[in-house]
Amino acid sequence: MTRIRLENLRKSFGDVDVVHGLDLEIEDGSFVALVGPSGCGKSTILRMIAGLEDITSGSIYFDDQRVNDAEPKARNVAMVFQNYALYPHITVRENIGLNLHISKFPKAEIDRLVNEAAAMLELQDLLDRRPAQLSGGQRQRVAMGRAMVRKPSVFLFDEPLSNLDAKLRVQMRAEIKHFHKSMQRTSIYVTHDQIEAMTLADKVVVLRKGRIEQAGDPISLYESPQNVFVAQFIGSPAMNIVPARVEQGENGQVVITLATGWTIPAGAGSRLAPGQSIQIGIRPEHLIPASGQGGFAASVNQTEITGSQTAIELAANGVRLWSVVPGIHTHAVGGLMTFSFMNHLAHVFDAEGGQRLGNLADIANLPDGRTATI
Ligand SMILES: Nc1ncnc2c1ncn2[C@@H]1O[C@H](COP(=O)(O)OP(=O)(O)OP(=O)(O)O)[C@@H](O)[C@H]1O
Ligand SMILES: [Mg+2]
């Protein structure tokens, strides 16, 4: 078992800085996902942990040992890549046992370990085939088998499922989860798919341009994103972010006016000051069609029906928004609908840095119920 600690980790390629002083603790036996847009440094970080890439400055610790200069072999890590990297001319059995063979394990021991891995990954019937005779998911399982026979103390995954079709991805995701439960090894999983990160990991690290935007358990990232970037990265479709102004009404009441044209009166003693610019974040699944009278108006641009849910693209005062509702709903394009949301499920971000100030109920001192509408 291994605890991994990154301390002020930096990486530059020539004069281009790609990782800017990363601090991160990965607990023993935990499953951590690194997510972020293409080019944010995920693979580079993983490769530095594996020992495949030099570290520009900072430290990597495995337990209390600084491994900056340790050879990849000495780190006892196994890495599973997107493109499987199987050898085409040898069988599944030989592919899985290859590293053991290279390390000169006795044949009987290789057979035992390969059979054990094959049983765990349900590959027993495929051991004599060659990679070309396997499906994508089966090849991915062989790559995992090859990684696990060495009983490494750390598993590193670099987008292992991105070459698979959607259905197989879901299936393999579940298998990786079982695999981690049974192996209980520290695992770091790189993906740009936030659903994979959310469903697999104990801790999700959201990266942007070589910096950590937020790290935490999946639910806290979903419920309390620290800024607009994380808010829009976690959750699908992405959170609606609407610019808003805090204004003083004629009767002295403080009112939030959204770019959608919607207005929300703040409660007495709210933390908002007239003249302040903010952004209001509402997740599509929290923007609920209003029944009966009242609510915020928006017109329907299009609907996307997937059976289990309907995503409705809306326009309000030229601002585009999404609402997601369970089940099948048909709405005429151009038709007007009204919506509401719960005060405590809407987020308030500052206008400049996009930092989260809190939820709407707290910031505007509103009761926890549905938004009042004017
Ligand atoms: N060997 C290299 N030489 C120069 N620049 C590199 C090298 N490897 C990576 N980079 C740059 O470093 C940055 C981070 O790359 P990295 O591969 O870590 O991104 P990533 O987050 O894994 O992206 P993706 O999701 O596309 O795989 C990118 O801008 C990339 O162009
Ligand atoms: Mg990558």
TrEMBL record:
InterPro entries: AAA+_ATPase, ABC_transporter-like_ATP-bd, ABC_transporter-like_CS, ABC_transpr_MalK-like, ABC_transpr_MalK/UgpC-like, Mo/tungstate-bd_C_term_dom, NA-bd_OB-fold, OB_MalK-like. One of its GO terms (molecular function) is ABC-type transporter activity. Coiled coil: none annotated. GO terms for cellular component: ATP-binding cassette (ABC) transporter complex, substrate-binding subunit-containing. Keywords: ATP-binding, Nucleotide-binding, Transport. The keyword Nucleotide-binding applies. Belongs to the ABC transporter superfamily. This is sn-glycerol-3-phosphate ABC transporter ATP-binding protein UgpC.
